[in-house]
Specification:
The protein contains nine helices and no strands. By secondary structure, the chain is mostly helical. The protein has two domains: 89 residues, no CATH class; 85 residues, Tetratricopeptide repeat domain (Serine Threonine Protein Phosphatase 5, Tetratricopeptide repeat, Alpha Horseshoe). α2 packs parallel to α4, α5 runs antiparallel to α6 and α8 packs antiparallel against α9. The protein is globular. The model has no long low-confidence stretch (mean pLDDT 88).
């Protein structure tokens, strides 16, 4: 997959959501350069169309792809844009981008103070939405930050909470799945 594929898809005027899916597939296939092209094209399209939610999701993918390549500056810029676009009307995607951005700040930039504000907000939002998977991810990210900052007791509580929420999510999924013969 190359930039030519992205141009070809655009020339066919296919559903623009496919660009997002193309980027996700490229990340799964470990081809982040291809993902960058797809996510950038998707973000450009959605910004022109005035859909900030879809543009924010594309910016999140773009940030992930840059981070995968350890291009920290472009990753940060894309994730900051995603935060801005997805914070207008908070959704589960807002929680996802805040987790990703906060983690970038902690793991790659060692900006614990700034990350703390984002990750505190993330956990609050995740709890408000009541999605146990998001709560588990937000608790893990904040716990990871606290552990790196030397706040072992608080980190332990949050990481235990993350494990409990992950177990809860797994149990809920197992109840939904029909019994296998």
């Amino acid at each position: 997959m190359t930039a030519n594929w992205v141009r070809l898809i655009l020339s066919w005027r296919l559903n623009r959501e496919w660009l997002q899916e193309l980027g996700e597939a490229a990340l799964l296939a470990a081809t982040p350069l291809d993902a960058i092209g797809a996510f950038q094209a998707a973000q450009d399209w959605w910004l022109r169309a005035g859909n900030s939610g879809a543009a924010g999701r594309a910016a999140l993918g773009l940030g992930r792809a840059h981070w995968r390549l350890e291009e920290i500056g472009p990753a940060r810029a894309a994730l900051q844009q995603a935060v801005a676009l997805l914070s207008e009307q908070p959704t589960a995607d807002t929680v996802r981008v805040l987790i990703e951005f906060g983690s970038l700040l902690v793991l790659s930039l060692h900006e614990h103070s700034e990350a703390r504000g984002f990750l505190d907000r993330t956990l609050t939002l995740a709890q408000r939405f009541g999605d146990v998977r998001l709560e588990a991810a937000a608790s893990r990210a904040l716990g990871n930050l606290l552990l790196r900052a030397g706040e072992v007791e608080g980190a332990t509580l949050l990481l235990e909470q993350a494990l409990l929420k992950a177990d809860e999510a797994f149990d809920a999924l197992a109840r939904l799945r029909p019994a296998l013969p």
